[in-house]
Design goal:
Length: 104
């Protein structure tokens, strides 16, 4: 994603925030997933982050569930948060090992 792509993402976020006041409840999580997918794709491309590349692919493949199977959509969101929590813990442990004494 280049500078224009980042600008477009900012436009999307602003328009989404304004539009959510009149949209159905399920659109909020859907719009946030769109932002997540775009940022994950950017990070994966710029920094070679394979975890975020996988996340972007999963989000892109599952965000339409909100229209067809709400229960599956919300289950996907729960599993997504669990994946992020596990990865955050793994990365935190990795960072601690990189610092002498294991403390920041």
């Amino acid at each position: 994603m280049d500078k224009n792509g980042l600008f477009d993402l900012c436009v999307y976020i602003a328009a989404s925030a304004e539009g959510l006041k009149d949209e159905p409840k399920d659109y909020g999580p859907l719009r946030l997933l769109e932002v997540l997918a775009r940022l994950a794709e950017l990070t994966a491309a710029e920094y070679g982050d394979s975890f975020l590349k996988e996340i972007a692919e999963e989000v892109n493949g599952n965000q339409d569930l909100v229209m067809t199977d709400r229960k599956a959509f919300y289950h996907f969101l729960e599993q997504l948060v669990i994946k992020f929590a596990k990865e955050a813990k793994r990365r935190d442990n990795t960072r601690k090992k990189e610092i002498p004494g294991g403390h920041p």
